[in-house]
Amino acid sequence: MVDWIYVGAGGIIGAIARYEFGRWSARHLDPSFPYATLLINFIGSLVIAVFLVWTTDRVLADPRWRLLVAIGFCGAFTTFSSFAFETLRLYERGSSALAIANIFGNNLAALTAVVAGAVIARKL
How far is residue 86's CA from residue 79's CA, in Å, rounded to a whole number? Predict the structure, then answer.
């Protein structure tokens, strides 16, 4: 029963971080491409990889930290549902090349971040 408190707390923090990053990116990045989603998916993938590899390979962590960080924070922070919708919107607007770039960009960025996160965690 207490586990949902950890998931919820991480989710609140992740959702607020997602919202604030989206606001920042709207002011600083080109709105013709969903850069915020791309960067958020990259950052979230990096965080989850560093955290899970570090707490699995390097340190003994209370399992509730996984609930807080991996499920709560990263689950609320990353935006693959937004990614899917934004890709559809790009395609429907006739921007097939941008839709394809969004698909490859998000997947490549997320996979790169996971590999980088694992390398970082193993060096800690």
Answer: 10
